[in-house]
Amino acid sequence: MDLHSFEEADLYFEAPLAPEVMALLNQAADAYSRGQAEPYLIKARFMAPQNLLVLVALYRFYYYQHRYTEALEVAGTALEVSGEMFGFDLGWRRMTLEHLSYGMVESFGMVRFYLLALKGSGYLCLRLGELEEGIERLEKVVALDSPDRLGARSLLEVAYNQKGIYSLEQRMSA
Fold it and tell me: Which InterPro entries does the UniProt record give (predicted)?
């Protein structure tokens, strides 16, 4: 499975979005430099709580504002929504290669999005000082993406170094 391939993949930003919600996202973009984007993004989320374009916009806003706790909450919602879009609703800890394979048949783009959201949430956990939680999330991504197409392994190695573990192999043998 090549997670870099986009042929015939459903992409989150191609999902239909009501014009009034898109207008809110545009207003948020215009208001960002003035520090007034958040109300537009919150209203857009209220109007389209399951739309990944809205969730990504809100996630990015919180991330770039260094509001990692809020970004992590939005990432969790994005995981739930994208998982449901390819038929997986058991929570990321229970994701297996079998689930992933089935999901690839349903929606390759949503599986890729899901794994990227899990990687992002792992990174946020690390930034919040929640090393074990971040490591657990990144280990899951690495286990599901063994060729490391999404680049989670390097983040995992950094987290391991912070914990005094120097390699994935060392962690697995402990």
Answer: TPR-like_helical_dom_sf (IPR011990)
